[in-house]
Amino acid sequence: MEVRQPLPGYNGNPQAEDGHTRIANELLEAILLADLSKRQQKVILAIIRKTYGYNKTCDDMTVSQLSLLTGMAAPHVSTTIKELMEANVVSAGAGRYGKILSINKKYDEWKVTKTVTITKTVITKTVTEDYQNGNSELPKRSFGVTKTVHTKDNPKRQLQKTIPIDKPIDVPSEIWADWTELRKVKKAPITITAIKGIEREAGLAGISLAEALQTCCANGWQGFKAAWVNKKTGQPAKQNNADRYLSSWGIDEQETRNERDITGTSKRLD
Q1: Mean pLDDT by 10 residues, the chain (270 residues)
Q2: What's the gap between Cα 137 and its chain centre?
Q3: Is 263 helix (H, G, I), strand (E, B) or coil?
Q4: What is the per-residue pLDDT for 221?
Q5: What is the number of other CB atoms lying within 10 angstroms of the CB of residue 215?
Q6: Where in the chain does DSSP place strands (E)?
């Protein structure tokens, strides 16, 4: 932060006897509680200094005078005075040199609105690249390249909620853990529909749900079909090439139903 030079007559020990500005505590507290910007506060204090500082209620002021007093650029001073006039904080009239300005002490008439600043999220990524200039004898040099990526908030984007599926009572914990890990590797979600489908096919095969899941784990199937096992032995049955392909991926009958027509001939998937 830039440090300003001391004011003329500075001695390191300012005293009220050398000059002071009287202002009612109630008015000062109203200014402190108002949602004013930094520029607005500076202009208000400058007006108070030019009025109450000389035991006046108003004074003829120019933009250049306020600019010198506040350290603000003249255009900013002019804009800020207009804002304060519209908010009914400052009263103004035509003057001989500039405008006759005064503070409106009826602070209940102020119409000050809070200014909200919207900022964008900035993600800074540092990328280091190596250069040899085609000379293998020279050591590699690293140059830091900073890339700034501006992102926009997407209110339509929402976090997806995953609902956990409870382990069926009749399935041992170790079998359930192995099967859920298999589904994870296959990138297949664990849903109620999948469990019910395997349970239905297990019933058709004459085995329990636990046995069906165990068979899936043993053969690397994410799903299960009754046709894939021998009803008498419960072991994987001999399969043709098509069924062997489906079983390797654990695609059940419900999933293949949308891929084949009523005649059983395969259809191309887009």
Answers
A1: 63 83 91 91 94 92 92 93 93 89 92 60 50 50 46 47 72 89 87 87 88 88 82 55 49 44 47
A2: 48
A3: coil
A4: 86
A5: 20
A6: 59-61, 90-94, 99-103, 122-131, 141-150
Name the amino acid, one letter, at 170: D
Nearest alpha carbon to residue 59 among 87, 91, 88: 91
Closest CA to 77 of 51, 52, 98, 105: 98
User: The domain at 21-109 falls in which architecture?
Assistant: Orthogonal Bundle (1.10)
Q: How many CB atoms lie under 10 A from the CB of residue 200?
A: 17
Q: Where are the domains of the chain?
A: 21-109, 173-257
At 150, the amino acid letter reads H
- Round to the nearest angstrom and report the end-to-end CA distance of the chain: 63
Distance CA 177, CA 181 (A): 6
Element (H, E) at 218: helix 209-219
Determine the pLDDT at residue 144: 47
